[in-house]
Amino acid sequence: MSPVRAASPHITVRVTRSDSSAPSEFTVPRIKPMTVLDALLAVQRLHDSALGFRFSCRVGMCGTCTIRVDGRSALACQTEITDEIAEIRVDPLAGLPVVRDLVVDMTPFWEAWKSVTPYLVPHDDAEVGMDAEPAVIPPDSEERRHIDPSLDCIGCGACFSSCGIAGAHRDFLGPAALNRAMVLIDDSRDAASRLRLSVVGGDESGVDRCHYIYGCSAACPKGLDPAKAIRRIRKKRFS
Amino acid sequence: MTTTPWADPELLTTDVAVIGSGGAGLMCVLHALEADPSLHVTIVSKGAVGRSGCTRMVQGGYNAVLDPNDSIDAHFSDTLAGGKYLNNQELAWTLVNDAPRVIHELETRVGCFFDRRADGRIHQKAFAGQTFDRTVHRGDLTGIEIMGRLRDQMFRLGPVELEDVRALDLIHDADGQLAGITGVHMRTGRPLVLRARVVVVATGGSATMYRVAAPAREKTGDGIAMCWRAGLAMRDMEMLQFHPTGLLAGEARMTGAVLEEGLRGAGAILRNALGERYMESYDPERLERSTRDVVARSGYLEIAAGRGTPEGGVLIDISHLGREEVERRFPGMVARTRQIGQDLASGPVTVSPTAHFHMGGVIIDKDCLTSLQGLLVAGEDAGGVHGANRLGGNGVAESTVYGARAGDTAAGMAPARSLHEPDQGEIDASFRRAYAPLGREEGPSPFELTRRLKELMWNKVGVVRDGEGLVQAAKELDGLAEEVRTVAAPGPAAVNFGWQEAMDLTNQITVARTMAYAAAWRTETRGAHARSDYPDSRQELDYLVLEAGPGDEIHSSVAPVEFTHASPPRLEKSGSDGGKP
Amino acid sequence: MTTTPARPAPASRGSAVRRRRAAYISLRMTGVLLAVLVLGHFASTHVITDVSGTDANFIDERWASLLWVIWDSVMLVAVLAHAVLGLWAVVADYSAGTRRLVIRATVFVVAGLLLLGGLAIIIVGASG
Amino acid sequence: MTLPQFLFFLGFTIVALVVIAFTVVVLRSARFYDGGAFPTGAMIMRLARPGRERVELQRWAFYVHRISGAGVFGFLCLHVVDVSLFAFSPAVYDNVHSLYGTAVMRVIEVGLLFALLFHTFNGLRLVSVDVKDLGIVASTRVLYVVLASTLVFGIVGAYYILKPVFL
Ligand SMILES: Cc1cc2nc3c(=O)[nH]c(=O)nc-3n(C[C@H](O)[C@H](O)[C@H](O)COP(=O)(O)OP(=O)(O)OC[C@H]3O[C@@H](n4cnc5c(N)ncnc54)[C@H](O)[C@@H]3O)c2cc1C
Ligand code: HEM
Ligand code: SF4
Ligand code: F3S
Ligand code: FES
C-alpha cells in the first residue's frame, strides 16, 4: 500500500484582485467533495463578500464560471480540489479585459463569434417557422458525423483564453467561433456557407492564424476539438 | 433636495422590455422581432444573456407530438394526469398544441439540430408519466442546443441587451398604468429606469430557496416578487416540484444537481440505508418508474423515518447493468458522480429529493396577458400550465411555447400602447429598498440569512408538510422578512455579490411566504404538495388565488378549476395520491 | 438596430480565399522543400566538409557545378518565400494597426534585397 | 581582428540581440495571453502527467518553433551578406569566413543546427497534422518523435562540428 498523506484541513486560495490593495490570500476549510467554485464561495461567505466572480448553473452547462486555475483556463465548478492540493491560485481569464477581480468582459469573444454569421441562414426556397417541416437528416450521414461532436459548445471562452493568438490582439477569430463556423458550413440546411468560408478562410483573422497550439482542444470542458474544426475548414478551402 | 445613496439613474426607453433571457425570454424576443422588425426590444438579464437560468440546464428534453402515431389528445391527457387535474386546461391545451410547432420553428428558423432516428427524422425518447415516446432531445445537453441557437438568433435580430442588469420593480405611472421597470447594473452598481410600452416578465421562478435545490443561481423568484409587489394575482403557490434524484455532495455547491430521470427509466433501483427496495411499499406496481412526486416523496419519507444514509439520502443503483453499459448510456451522469467522489457505473450513489420547479406563479391567459395592462408573463413565472405536478419535458416546452406567444402578443400590443411617465415616488421607493443593505455597516450577513431560509423551507415547507410545521414556518418567515430589512452588504456597488444576495433574499422571502400560506390552505395531498396530516386527495378541485394586501398582508380567495376540455376521472374515496399507504 | 457588418462583394471575397489558400499552401510546400535543401546544405558545409574547409576555393568548386547553382538558388528563393510567409503570421500575432503595416513593409523590403543580392552572388559566383 | 571581421561580429551581435528580444516578446506575451509560459512548478507537474495536460508540451513546441524560425531567418540574413563578400573579393570572404572555424562560432553553429533541426522536423509535423488530420493525441505522439530526432541528429551533427576543437 502506498503511503497516504492526510489532506490538509484548509485550502489556501490566492486570488488576483483587480484592486491590488484588496486582500488576495485566503484560507478556507476543506470540504469533501470540493471544487474551485466551492472554495470561492467560501471566500465570499467567510472573508470578503465583495469578491467578484461569476457562475450560474454549477454543473458545467452555462459556461460563465470560467477562470484560470494555476494558470490554466477551466470551469470553476468543474475543477476539483483533490486531496493532494492544499493551495490554489486563481486568476481572471487571460486575453480578455477584466471587469472586476475574476469577472472578465467577454465582448471580444462574442464579437468574433458574431463575425462568422453564427446563426442558421435558411435557403431562399426553404420554408421556415412554426409550420415548416424539419429536414430529414440520417444520424449516420456525413454531415451529422462531423457536426455532432462539435455541437455542444457552451461559449465558456476557455479555449479563447488558452490560445495566445486569440487573446493577444483579438483579431484572430479564435477556436470557438471557428468551430461554430465549421458546424454551419457543414450544415446542409444553411445557405450562407460560402460567405462564412470567405470570412474564416479569406480574412487575415481566419484559420491561417492558428498554429496548432492546442490550448483550445485541451481546455474545452465539453470535450470539443476546435483544432479539428480548424483543420476541416482549411481542407474545405480546397474543395 | 436630498442626496440619495445611489447614483443618478440611467434613463432608457424601449417598446418591449423582456426581463429574463432564458427560453421564455429569448423566444419572446425572437417572435416580437419576427412579427415586427421595427420594434425596439430590450432584454434585461440578471445573468449572461442566454447563458443563465434553467432552460440552459435542460438535459432530458422537450415534449412534443411529432409522430403520426402519437396524438395531441394523448399528450394533453398525460399532462392533466400528471398535474392531477389542477391545470388551467386552456393553458395546458395551448401548450400541447403549440409544442410541435415550436419544435419545427426551433429546427427550421432557429437552427437547432436535434438528434435523429435512423430514418433521419427527429428522435423522441421515453420520459416518465407519458403514454408515448415523445421527448425531443439533443444528447443529454438539450438545453445548451436550444439556448445556444436562440442566443445566436439575437446576433441576427440585434435587440438591445442589458446583460448583468437586475430588474428590481415594475413601476406604474401616477394613474396606476404600467410605465416600465427599475433596475441596477450589476457591473457598475448604477441604477436605471427603463420605460416601456410592454413589459414581459420571464425570470424563471424561484426553486432555489431550498437546502437541496437544482436550478441555476439567478432563479430567486425576482419576477414573481416583482409582480407580487405590483399587485398581481398568483395561483398554485404551494406546488413546488421535487426531483427524486438530486446529488448529495455535502456542503459543495454541487449538492442538488439532478441525476436524470432516464436512469430510473433504464432500470435503476432505489434502496434505503438498510438495503430495502423501498419503492415496493409505496408503489408496488410502477416501482422506481413511478411519477416524480411519488418517488420524491417516498425517498423523503424513508429519510425522515431514519432509514436514510448518514449523509441524509437514499441510494440509487444502476451498476447491475454493467460498468461499460452505464458509461456508454449515461456518460454525463457518470462524470458528474465521479466528480464528487462517487461512481454511478460501479456502485450505488447517494441521492435525495431536490427542489426543482415551481408550478405556481402569476395568473395569465393563453396569450400571456395578466390583469395589469401592458404586462405579460411567460415561462416558469406563470402558474397554471402544469397544475399540481409538471411532467418531465413539459418545462422547456412551456417556456418556449409561452415565450413565443408573449412575443406575438407584445408585437401586436406595443404599437398601440403609449408610453407612460413613471411615478417618481415608486422609483425612489424601489431604489431605497434595493440600496439599503449596501449603505449598512452593521447587520446580519445575507449569506447567513439565505442559509437559514433554505433550512427552514426544506424542513417545514419541503417534500412533505404538516399543519403545525407550516404555521411555524409562516411565523419564522415573518421574522426573516423583518430581519432581511436590516441585512448589511458592505463593499462597493460594482460587482458586489453580497449585495446581490441581499436583494435575492428579499424576493425569496416574499415568495416563500406565499408558498407557506398556500400550503397551509391546501388540506389534502395532491401532486407535488404532500401533507402528512392529510394524506388523501379531496374530491373537489380548486386552487388558491393570492394577492398582496397592505403592509405584508396576504389576501386570498378560492377558485374552482374549470374543465373546459376534459373532466377528471372520478376519484375513489381512498384515492391516495401515492402517499404512504 | 440590426448589425450587418459591411463586407466587400462576394466576388472579391472569393479571390481573398484563393490568395490566403495560396499563401497557406506555399508556406507548407516551401517548408517541405526546404527540409531537403537546407539540411542537405548544412550537411555538406558542416558535416561532410568541415566549416573551416568552406573557403573561397570551396565555393569556386561548388558553384562550378550547375547542380549546386540550382540547389542554392532554389533554396534561397524558397527560404525567403517561406520566411516572409511565416513572418506574415508572426507580425500579425504581435502587432496591430499601422505598426503591423510598417513591420511587414520592412520584412518585405529586407527579404527583397536579400533575394536580389543573394541571387546576384550565386550567378556572379557561378559565372566568374 | 580585421575591419571586415569586426563588421561581421557587429552584424552578428545585432542579429543575436534581435533574436533574444524576439524570444522575450514571444514568452512574455504568452504569459499575458495564454496563461503563462514560464516553467513554474505547476507547469512542470503537468508535463509529467499523462493525457490532455501534455498540451503544455505543444505550447512549448509552438514557442520554440516560432523562435527558431525567426532565429534561423536572422542568421540567414547575415549569412547571405557574408557569402556575398565572395563576389566582391574572395580574399575578404576568406578573412571573414575563417571566423566560422573558431571554437566559439562552432558552438554557435551547434545551436543553429538544433534550431534548424527542430524547426524542420516540427514543421514537417505541422504539415502532417493538416494532411493526415492528426488530432491532439496523435500530434503529441509525433512531437515526441520530433524531439527524439532533433536530439539524435543534433548530437551527431554536433560531434562533427565540434570534433576539430578537440583534436
Ligand atoms: C437541472 C434542471 C433540469 C431540467 N430539465 C428539464 C427537462 O429535461 N425538460 C424540461 O422540459 N424541463 C426541464 N427543466 C425545467 C425547465 O428548465 C424550466 O421549466 C424552464 O427552463 C424555465 O424557463 P424560463 O425561460 O421560464 O426561465 P429560465 O430559463 O430559468 O430563465 C430565467 C432568466 O431570468 C433571468 N433573471 C432572473 N431574475 C432576473 C431579474 N431580477 N432581472 C433580470 N433577469 C432575471 C435569468 O438571468 C435567466 O436569464 C429543468 C430544470 C432544471 C433546473
Ligand atoms: C527546413 C524545413 C522547414 C520546414 C519543414 C518548415 C516548416 C514550417 C511551417 C509548417 C511553418 C508554419 C508554422 C505555423 O504556421 O505554425 C513554418 C513557419 C516558419 N518558418 Fe519554417 N520551415 C522550414 C525551414 C525554415 C527556415 C530555414 C526558416 C528561416 C529562414 C524558416 C522560418 C520560418 C518562420 C519565420 C516561420 C513563422 C513562424 C511561425 O509562424 O510561428 N523555416 N515553417
Ligand atoms: S469550444 Fe469548448 S472551450 Fe471553447 S467556448 Fe466552446 S465549450 Fe468553451
Ligand atoms: S489554441 Fe489557438 S492556435 Fe489553434 S489549435 Fe487552438 S486555435
Ligand atoms: S457555473 Fe455554469 S459552467 Fe460552471
From TrEMBL, chain A:
<dbReference type="InterPro" id="IPR006058">
    <property type="entry name" value="2Fe2S_fd_BS"/>
</dbReference>
<dbReference type="InterPro" id="IPR050573">
    <property type="entry name" value="SDH/FRD_Iron-Sulfur"/>
</dbReference>
<keyword id="KW-0816">Tricarboxylic acid cycle</keyword>
<dbReference type="InterPro" id="IPR004489">
    <property type="entry name" value="Succ_DH/fum_Rdtase_Fe-S"/>
</dbReference>
<dbReference type="Pfam" id="PF13085">
    <property type="entry name" value="Fer2_3"/>
</dbReference>
<dbReference type="InterPro" id="IPR012675">
    <property type="entry name" value="Beta-grasp_dom_sf"/>
</dbReference>
<keyword id="KW-0411">Iron-sulfur</keyword>
<feature type="domain" description="4Fe-4S ferredoxin-type">
    <location>
        <begin position="143"/>
        <end position="175"/>
    </location>
</feature>
<dbReference type="Pfam" id="PF13183">
    <property type="entry name" value="Fer4_8"/>
</dbReference>
<dbReference type="InterPro" id="IPR001041">
    <property type="entry name" value="2Fe-2S_ferredoxin-type"/>
</dbReference>
<dbReference type="InterPro" id="IPR009051">
    <property type="entry name" value="Helical_ferredxn"/>
</dbReference>
<keyword id="KW-0408">Iron</keyword>
TrEMBL record, chain B:
<dbReference type="InterPro" id="IPR027477">
    <property type="entry name" value="Succ_DH/fumarate_Rdtase_cat_sf"/>
</dbReference>
<feature type="domain" description="FAD-dependent oxidoreductase 2 FAD-binding">
    <location>
        <begin position="15"/>
        <end position="396"/>
    </location>
</feature>
<keyword id="KW-0285">Flavoprotein</keyword>
<dbReference type="InterPro" id="IPR036188">
    <property type="entry name" value="FAD/NAD-bd_sf"/>
</dbReference>
<feature type="active site" description="Proton acceptor">
    <location>
        <position position="292"/>
    </location>
</feature>
<dbReference type="InterPro" id="IPR030664">
    <property type="entry name" value="SdhA/FrdA/AprA"/>
</dbReference>
<feature type="region of interest" description="Disordered">
    <location>
        <begin position="560"/>
        <end position="581"/>
    </location>
</feature>
<keyword id="KW-0274">FAD</keyword>
<dbReference type="InterPro" id="IPR015939">
    <property type="entry name" value="Fum_Rdtase/Succ_DH_flav-like_C"/>
</dbReference>
<feature type="compositionally biased region" description="Basic and acidic residues">
    <location>
        <begin position="570"/>
        <end position="581"/>
    </location>
</feature>
<feature type="domain" description="Fumarate reductase/succinate dehydrogenase flavoprotein-like C-terminal">
    <location>
        <begin position="451"/>
        <end position="566"/>
    </location>
</feature>
<dbReference type="InterPro" id="IPR003953">
    <property type="entry name" value="FAD-dep_OxRdtase_2_FAD-bd"/>
</dbReference>
TrEMBL record, chain C:
<dbReference type="Pfam" id="PF01127">
    <property type="entry name" value="Sdh_cyt"/>
</dbReference>
<keyword id="KW-0479">Metal-binding</keyword>
<feature type="transmembrane region" description="Helical">
    <location>
        <begin position="22"/>
        <end position="43"/>
    </location>
</feature>
<dbReference type="InterPro" id="IPR034804">
    <property type="entry name" value="SQR/QFR_C/D"/>
</dbReference>
<keyword id="KW-0408">Iron</keyword>
<keyword id="KW-1133">Transmembrane helix</keyword>
<keyword id="KW-0812">Transmembrane</keyword>
<keyword id="KW-0349">Heme</keyword>
<keyword id="KW-0472">Membrane</keyword>
<feature type="transmembrane region" description="Helical">
    <location>
        <begin position="63"/>
        <end position="89"/>
    </location>
</feature>
<dbReference type="GO" id="GO:0046872">
    <property type="term" value="F:metal ion binding"/>
</dbReference>
<feature type="transmembrane region" description="Helical">
    <location>
        <begin position="101"/>
        <end position="126"/>
    </location>
</feature>
Automatic annotation (TrEMBL), chain D:
<keyword id="KW-0472">Membrane</keyword>
<dbReference type="GO" id="GO:0046872">
    <property type="term" value="F:metal ion binding"/>
</dbReference>
<keyword id="KW-0349">Heme</keyword>
<keyword id="KW-0812">Transmembrane</keyword>
<feature type="transmembrane region" description="Helical">
    <location>
        <begin position="142"/>
        <end position="162"/>
    </location>
</feature>
<dbReference type="GO" id="GO:0006099">
    <property type="term" value="P:tricarboxylic acid cycle"/>
</dbReference>
<feature type="transmembrane region" description="Helical">
    <location>
        <begin position="67"/>
        <end position="93"/>
    </location>
</feature>
<feature type="transmembrane region" description="Helical">
    <location>
        <begin position="6"/>
        <end position="27"/>
    </location>
</feature>
<dbReference type="Pfam" id="PF01127">
    <property type="entry name" value="Sdh_cyt"/>
</dbReference>
<keyword id="KW-0408">Iron</keyword>
<protein>
    <submittedName>
        <fullName>Succinate dehydrogenase, cytochrome b556 subunit</fullName>
    </submittedName>
</protein>
<dbReference type="InterPro" id="IPR039023">
    <property type="entry name" value="SdhC_prok"/>
</dbReference>
